[in-house]
Design brief:
By secondary structure, this protein is an alpha/beta fold. It has helices at residues 58-71, 90-103, 122-127, 142-148, 161-181, 201-210, 237-247, 274-285, 343-352, 366-374, 386-394; strands at 20-23, 32-34, 75-80, 108-113, 130-136, 149-154, 157-160, 185-192, 215-220, 265-266, 296-299, 306-307, 316-322, 328-335, 356-361, 378-381, 384-385. The chain folds into two domains: 5-284, Alpha-Beta Barrel (TIM Barrel); 292-407, 2-Layer Sandwich (Nucleotidyltransferase, domain 5). Helices cover 29% and strands 20% of the residues.
Length: 423
């Protein structure tokens, strides 16, 4: 197998008008909170990191990739860039990379990460011939880093202020060094934030060049509403150019970055086509493993009209399907396993609902949610009219308006700081 490294449009300016890329949005959770980041807004016409219209499972992502390759056969790169961090979602990330490598052996693979949890996966990334990894390093001075990052979550522990910045920067630099030892091409993104790190980026460039980085992307900060930095003006083109020229003394520069979405597809700089956005929605509406036959959706409800019952309280589940005209219909009612029994109860429920792609409830604990997910059943905590929710799931619609407020994790200044990432 020969990987054509020069075909990567992000790393090779000469390739960007000929070869396309696709980002598979399979990583919703994030392990850090940046003061410029807010992923809860999604407009098809905006290009910025962390934005996606849908979240896919690894096998849904493969279905979507197959469709994309038919529509855009010039795709040369499959990347994972969020909408959270790939290695805050390591199981989904690594499974997706394995699946792509097995089916498309000549495809270039890349990931974009903050680097916090990258280290344990570098050896396997190299084995899978993931040829390009991007780490966003905005500071190497923890004092400056503490102004950029609100918190960092590592090994189930929260860090803030200087402790957070020291931990993150240390792991970023260690990961960069190990990537180069493993023979992986490494790009560093540094986001230029006026008044915060604009005079510091050259120090970042000097340090990452010492560690072997291959290319530097000095990205202008994107002003985003409902973030700590929302009132900071974006850097002027002259400032960006001056910083690129200064850091160019240390590393080659990527100057054609389009600040791509987490679901970007096609040629860099082009907005996702309506056809590809529809294919993305269709993939998200499939069972987590599209090869399985899961034609139904289960619902917990007290009276059969609203989603208003906690999973643990349900004595029976309503089973909905779709008829030939696209209408939602009630097809069955199934008795819940007896209370008690711990994990075995949820295993029994998963078996009872094995032909269901999703379970819609008004509340659910962590243990049943984990068991259901492992069995290919997505637990969705919603409130509202059953028919609207069921129709929306079957058709891949955005159901944020039906999500209970406690289930929505914003990434802006209103973030609760749980480290749970975006839902």
């Amino acid at each position: 197998m020969t990987l054509k490294i020069a075909n990567h449009p992000c790393f090779n300016d000469a390739s960007r008008h000929k070869f396309g890329r696709i980002h598979l949005p399979i990583a919703p959770k994030c392990n850090i909170q940046c003061n410029y980041c807010n992923r809860k807004f999604d407009c098809m016409n905006e290009n910025r990191p962390g934005v996606t219209s849908k979240i896919l499972s690894p096998r849904q992502a493969m279905h979507y990739l197959d469709q994309a390759m038919i529509l855009s056969p010039n795709i040369a790169v499959v990347g994972i860039a969020g909408p959270g961090d790939p290695f805050a979602n390591p199981d989904e990330t690594m499974e997706t990379l394995r699946l792509v490598r097995a089916k498309y052996p000549e495809m270039l693979l890349c990931v974009a990460t903050n680097g916090l949890d990258l280290l344990p996966y570098i050896d396997e990334l190299a084995e899978l011939q993931v040829s390009h990894v991007t780490i966003t390093i905005n500071a190497i001075d923890p004092v400056i880093g503490s102004e950029i990052y609100a918190w960092v979550r590592h090994n189930k522990k929260m860090y803030r202020d200087l402790d957070a910045a020291k931990l993150l920067i240390g792991r970023q630099l260690e990961a960069l060094k190990k990537l180069k030892e493993a023979g992986v091409t490494a790009k560093v993104n540094s986001i230029i934030i006026p008044g915060i790190n604009d005079s510091h980026v050259i120090e970042v460039a000097r340090k990452v060049a010492e560690l072997g980085a291959d290319i530097l992307n000095c990205m202008p900060y994107y002003s985003t509403t409902e973030t700590v930095f929302e009132n900071i003006a974006e850097p002027s083109p002259d400032l960006v150019s001056a910083i690129q020229n200064a850091t160019g003394e240390y590393l080659p520069q990527m100057k054609h970055c389009a600040r791509c979405r987490a679901d970007a597809v096609g040629i860099i700089g082009e907005i996702n086509s309506e056809e590809m956005m529809q294919k993305l929605a269709e993939a998200a509406a499939l069972p987590k493993n599209p090869a399985e036959s899961r034609p139904y959706i289960a619902v917990s409800s007290m009276e059969g009209v609203l989603i208003n019952q906690h999973l643990g309280e349900a004595e029976r589940f309503l089973i909905y399907g779709m008829n030939d005209t696209g209408e939602c219909i009630l097809v069955d009612a199934r008795t819940a396993p007896p209370a008690g029994g711990g994990k075995e109860r949820w295993e029994a429920l998963a078996d009872t609902l094995k032909d269901c792609r999703a379970l819609l409830v008004n509340g659910a604990g962590g243990s049943p949610t984990t068991v259901m997910k492992a069995k290919g059943i997505e637990v969705m905590v919603l409130e509202g009219v059953i028919e609207e929710a069921v129709y929306g799931v079957f058709n891949g619609q955005d159901l944020k308006h039906l999500m209970k407020s406690s289930q929505i994790h914003a990434c802006g200044s209103s973030c609760s700081g749980t480290g749970g990432g975006c839902g």
